[in-house]
Amino acid sequence: MKKYLTIIILFLTVQANAQSSLKGKVNSGKELLVGANVFIKNTYDGGSTNSNGEFKFSTTEKGVVVLVVTCIGYELYEKQIDLNAKEITLNISLIEKPNELNTVTITAGTFESGADIKKAMILSSLDIATTAGAEADIYSAIQTLPGAQAANQEEGLFVRGGAASETKTLFDGLWVQKPFMNDMPNVSQRGRFSAFEFKGTTFSSGAYSAQYGQALSSVLILDSKDLADNTTSDIGVMTAGLTAGYTKRFKNSSMNVNASYFNLKPSNTVVPQNLDWLEDPNSISLGGNYRVKTSQTGILKIFNSTTQNKMKLRRENLDPINTKMLIDNDDRTSYTNITYQEYLNDDWKLNIGYAMNLQENVFKLDTNVLNRNDYLHQARIGVNGYINKKLQAKFGVESLNQWKEEKYNNFRNRFEEKLSAGYAEFDYYFTYKVVLRAGARAEYSQKLNQFAIVPRISVAYKQNKLHQYSVAYGQFVQSPVDGYMMLANNIKFEQAEHYLANYQFQTEKYILRVEAYRKNYTDLVRENSINNTYTNNGNGYAQGFDIFWRDRKTIKRGDYWISYSYLDTKRIFRDYPTLARPTFAATHTFNIVYKEYIPKIQTQIAATYTFASGRTYRNPNATEFLSNYTKAYHNLSINASYLTSIKSHFTVLFLSIGNVFGIENEFGYEYSNDGSRRRAIEPNAPRSIFIGIFISIGDDNVLN
Amino acid sequence: MKKLVLLICLVLSVGTTMAQSNFEKGMTKGIEMLKASKTAEDFVATANHFERIASVENNNWVPVYWNAYTYLIAGMNVKKESQQDEMYDKAMSLLESIENSKIERSEYLTLKGYIMLMKISVSPMSRAPQGTPAAMGLLTEAQNVNPKNPRPFYVMGQNTFYTPSFFGGGKDKAKPLLANAVELYKVESPSDSFMPKWGRGRAESLLKECE
């Protein structure tokens, strides 16, 4: 018995002696790591690091073993260790894994919005839809970002001293020739597409990718949604009209049909108008889409939107005095977009697209009739993917065909353009903290008989999760505006050159972005109206800086952003006699956007305040060209959305008021021929009021 | 010779018995750790424990399942949105790695739906429109595959409980789901103590709040 006991004791001691104890710390090179798993490979023996980054465990293993350390967000660590020592102390450094938050991305000049917060988006799709004063109009929401200026008296986006024509809208990579509802002199218009059509919006205020061309200043890239999630019917009743839509979800496809009718008569009757409407702006739109998953990874999308817009008004003439002019506008637009995407293999993706823009417009001034027809087709094919882990590439070609005709009474002008372009662009990741993007774009215009190659380059460095620095350079060419294309011979592309430097600070709840830029314009078209000649000897510059600050933390449940832009710009172009600050460029622009959801009353409230310093206007009596400034622009808009249900159908009650205080804003002046009389160019109405109710009837109720 | 074979057999069987008991010991300890965990740090330490078991027990879905479940609960106990996302993503990738194992389909779908719902809760405004129908679809499928499993009813009931009524949620709608879950929990007889068995206490207390 004693013998056995000795053996057992001996055995136990051997066991005890065989135990090695391991302890130490795990760090990331900068900080101690909590929750790292430290263990001996192929055993249960191990431990986790505590809040001081320390671990401690013992093992009965012997000899040379492999120590493994795992931790979320870090690369796997393995090391051979010898367990002959009784006590082993280790200090382990793990290498951070690249992820969406710590990996560098090209940010110079770019504001991206999308559905997923994980991608560290500056704005979400919902932010665009709920900005006060925007009412789900993408363009109005984009105007609250730095670099963009409130257009107000015209359609379009003025970006960093660029004219509205210098910004292109792209729908799934294809041009939208007419992204606005209507064009009327001195009347601003909404965009044609609802913010809800898109899963992501990218606004680039400069030095953008070689993938895009024919825009001297800026591109707005809209990415349409994929298959609808479920079958629903939507109805909207507003002070401005009615909308109805039906979406059907099939197993591998979805379709949507929608119709809307808008008429501003009811609201124009209630809200005093600055204009004398004979037929209030009204429109009928029909549209739809069909999206089908052609395979696990492939998707085909077909989209159409067709609209007819009408309005008629009478305006006091400046010349001759006490006469009125009848303005009548009838506009038909149809936009079709077809795209197909598929992965060729694990690394390469194919994109094919076709878009068709049809526009017919009859514009009458008293008895004079201007007929405009514009047809534009565009096709593109491109691939993008990985050459290796560090090198990403994009290649593509596109072709565009435009035919445009204008008839003014008996005069007729027309032009036809064939534009071809190709691009190649590479993103090279030196490490996941430094990326270089280099690309070039070639453009050939048949009408201008000109070929151009323009380079784009940018470098970004992500110091750590919080700080990123980028610089970018790009050259851009664009065909002159349609009016010049039609009338002028021997003109060339207009050109711009962008230099950007950008700093971005981002945490989960805060974003600060500062960007400085310089743009040089050359070959701008100038017209000599006396002998009707056109030359490319215009030029100009724009320089300044933008600041964007967003804070989702300080105010509980509240969220706000502030943007400020400083712009110094002058140019000589069109009919300008000298270098001057153009009429569309305010020196200081400031926006503050606030949103808050109040659960108690199930209501989201939002407010937007916009300030812009005065703009230049043409005063024939001034000695110096464009030397007079309008007064500054102020606008406070608010909205509220009340979420409720009517017979268990999700319902939103919406109210918005534009320019709450009815501040009288002016965008410039019009003068009589002799310069003795003038009138201010103003918004249609000092205030705007919009009330609506939107009901969503789900056939597949989410919870049943 | 015979003796030798016997000896080898004996040694082998002792070896397997020991390995089994190691696994059982490890799993028992893990489940005890899970019950005792209070902070995110505790839950991660528990998840790490299951990870170590899984690293030894190849092709056994049980420790991987509990590893995924523990990360899900750990995610609910951290404050930073990016950390929540990290943990839910980790839970999801662990769970998806055992999709084709012997795990009961209903349990797989339930946990997947639960993780998706918690992912949505990180940023409901941007994720709910797309994510909620998909997650609810998984839970419905889980209920259909095994109508006796209380967990898909409990998870769906819990989500409905916390969804505002104008989005189709609320206590009234949650009550029948939770009541059904509680009934099913009462008759549930886990064949093995390491099989999924979570949710009962929470389901009962939520049901009480519905009364």
Task: Provide an overview of this structure.
- The complex is a heterodimer of chains A (704) and B (211).
- Chain A is mainly beta and 704 residues long.
- Chain A folds into two domains: 2-93, Immunoglobulin-like (Sandwich), CATH 2.60.40; 110-698, Maltoporin, Chain A (Beta Barrel).
- The longest helix of chain A has 17 residues, at 2-18.
- Chain A is globular and about 110 Å long.
- The model of chain B is unreliable at 9-17 (pLDDT under 50).
- Chain A binds chain B through residues 34-35, 37, 39, 41-48, 50-51, 68, 70, 72-73, 101, 115-118, 124-126, 229-230, 508, 599, 602, 643-645, 648, 650-651, 700-704, and chain B through 22, 26, 40-41, 44-45, 48-49, 51-53, 55-56, 80-82, 85-87, 90, 122-123, 125-127, 129-130, 132-134, 136, 160, 163-169, 173.
The rounded distance between the terminal residues' Cα atoms of chain B is 72 Å
* Overall helicity of chain B: over 70%
- Any idea what the CATH architecture of the largest domain in chain B is? Up-down Bundle
CATH top level class name of the largest domain in chain A: Mainly Beta
Per DSSP, what share of the residues of chain A sits in E-state strands of 2 or more residues? over 45%
Low-confidence stretches of chain B: 9-17
Instruction: Supply Rg of chain B.
Output: 19 Å
Computed over alpha carbons, the radius of gyration of chain A is 31 Å
> H/E series of chain B, N to C?
HHHHHHHHH
- As for the number of domains of chain A, it is 2
Q: What is the domain total for the residues of chain B?
A: 2
Total number of beta strands of chain A: 41
CATH topology of the largest domain in chain B: Methane Monooxygenase Hydroxylase, Chain G, domain 1
What portion of residues of chain A is helical? under 10%
Instruction: Give the termini separation of chain A.
Output: 72 Å
What CATH first level of the largest domain in chain B would be assigned?
Mainly Alpha
Beta content of chain B:
under 5%
Mind telling me which CATH architecture of the largest domain in chain A this is?
Beta Barrel
Number of strands of chain B: 0
